[in-house]
Each structure stands twice: as C-alpha cells, then as structure tokens.
Design a protein that fits this description.
This protein has 103 residues and is mainly α. It has two domains: 1-30; 41-103, no CATH class. Helices cover 69% and strands 0% of the residues. The chain is built from three helices and no strands. The protein has helices at 6-30, 32-54, 65-87. The longest helix is centred in the N-terminal third of the chain and has 25 residues, at 6-30. It is elongated. It starts with 5 loop residues before the first helix and ends in a 16-residue tail after the last helix.
Length: 103
C-alpha cells in the first residue's frame, strides 16, 4: 500500500475541490431552476393542505371536525409555520418573481 506524500495529498484535495465546484456549476446550469420550481409548488400544496385542514382557525371551515382530528398528527408539525406565513405581511415585490420577464 502506498502512502501519499504531502504534495500528493494537496493535489488530491485540490482535484476534489475542482470536481465539487464543477459538479455544483453543472447542477446550477441544468436542474436548479427545476428544483426551485418544484419546491415552490410543494410549498403551495402544503399551504393548501393546511388551509383545507385548519381553515376554521382563520374562519373558513371546509372539513368537518372529525376529519380534521384524523389529519391532526400529519399537520401538527407544520401548524406554527403555516400560521406565521399567514400573518406575514405581503409586499408586491414578493410576487414579482411570479411574473415572467421580471428578474
């Protein structure tokens, strides 16, 4: 078994860093926008699920309480962030990224 000298270790570390940087650049060029869009869609679906499940908290009852209680274990971890998101003040600049051509 050969041991790496200090120079070879530095070279191996440098090559590893270059490969990681190239991988991150390729990821950013190819799939980053897709992932960002999918994350946004997932957040919207989660917001809709929470609205349907706990709409009565904001005065919009949709589901009977029986079904709400059945869904409670799945929705409880997201409840605090959902309420905070509803209370957050919206600004027109928050919606600018949804309009095509606005960067």
């Amino acid at each position: 078994m050969t041991t790496l000298t200090t120079g070879n270790r530095k070279l191996a570390t440098r090559l590893r860093d270059i490969c990681r940087a190239a991988r991150e650049v390729l990821y950013g060029m190819t799939t980053f926008e897709w992932k960002r869009g999918l994350d946004r869609q997932r957040a919207e679906v989660e917001q809709l699920f929470m609205l349907v499940t706990f709409g009565e908290l904001i005065g919009l009852p949709i589901l009977p309480p029986y079904y709400t209680l059945r869904l409670l274990p799945y929705a409880l971890p997201m409840l605090r962030s959902w309420k905070r998101g509803l209370a957050r003040e919206r600004d027109w600049s928050d919606l600018a990224e949804l309009v095509e051509g606005v960067d």
